[in-house]
Design brief:
Blueprint lengths: L1 E5 L7 H14 L2 E7 L18 E5 L5 E5 L3 H12 L6 E8 L11 H11 L3 E7 L3 H4 L11 H17 L5 E6 L9 E3 L10 E6 L5 E6 L11 H7 L3 E6 L8 H13 L2
Parallel strand pairs: 1-2, 1-5, 2-4, 5-6, 6-7, 8-11
Antiparallel strand pairs: 3-4, 7-11, 9-10
Helix pairs in contact: 1-5, 2-3
């Protein structure tokens, strides 16, 4: 099994290295890491069309090598497939991301952007994210006391089922609650509405000019059956099957109601 492994947290992400180790050991997979040179959270499925990209073969903490790309997670998938591997891998896995990716806000996620790009080119694709509390976010990257091994084993379990049963979806969005074990139930969910509230903090620099931080607080619950409810309220693993085709589900009804209106004088 050939796996292209990406992570929007960057080439030195602890979640990336832990997942690589477990995938190699438990699946016997050939894992190729292609990840951004630096943090790329929140870039969605952005592609670098107007700037040149560089690939740097990089020694990782485990002594193995990966490829650092001076671009976005989506750039990493494209270069990984067409330049480094020179073929479409069996699966593109994006993660393990530091912080959950829930609700319709996943369109801004670099983690999901990489997974969708992998699916676009014909690979099976999975995005995996780990719930992180505010206490953990106080630590610097590389110093966070987070167990990524157990979530990695959960990912392997899902990957095995994904191939054995050939799930009919383009992307699996897997979110794992903090403190999950290998026995934590997995629930199939739909996207919630929001993962965070939105607020803007206004500040002033030393020269008196205004600047802004966009932020928000976690939405702690949503309707039953949503990823937000399952992860944050029930503390179960959320698995959301996603499709590249974002066309409205009831298209024929939409046509009946609006086609004549749109074509009327």
């Amino acid at each position: 099994m050939d796996i292209l492994l990406v992570n929007d947290d960057g080439i030195y992400s602890n979640g990336l290295l832990a997942l690589k180790s477990v995938l190699s050991e438990e699946l016997g997979a050939k894992v190729t890491i292609v990840a951004p040179t630096n943090q790329q959270s929140g870039v969605g499925r952005a592609i670098s069309l107007f700037i040149p990209l560089r690939i740097t073969k990089t020694k990782l903490a485990d002594g193995d090598y990966g490829y650092a790309v001076s671009g976005t997670p989506t750039d990493c998938v494209i270069l990984g497939i067409y330049k480094i591997l020179k073929k479409v891998p069996d699966i593109v896995i994006s993660g393990i991301n530091v912080g959950e990716n829930l609700g319709t806000e996943i369109t801004t996620s670099g983690t999901l952007g990489a997974a969708f790009e992998g699916a676009h080119h014909g690979a099976k694709a999975l995005a995996c994210s780990l719930e992180i509390t505010k206490d953990h976010l106080k630590f610097k990257e590389g110093e966070m006391p987070i167990d990524f091994i157990t979530p990695s084993k959960i990912v392997v379990k899902v990957v095995k089922k994904y191939f054995d049963k050939d799930f009919p979806c383009d992307v699996i969005n897997l979110n794992i609650p903090e403190g999950a074990t290998e026995e934590t139930p997995i629930e199939i969910t739909r996207l919630g509405r929001r993962m965070y509230t939105t607020h803007i903090e206004e500040r002033e620099d030393p020269r008196g000019r205004e600047y802004y931080w966009i932020g928000g607080d976690p939405v702690e619950d949503d309707e039953e059956g949503t990823d937000v409810h399952v992860l944050r309220k029930k503390k179960h693993i959320s698995l959301t099957p996603l499709t590249l085709d974002t066309t409205i589900k009831n298209l024929e009804d939409f046509k009946r109601r609006y086609e004549k209106i749109l074509n009327s004088p």
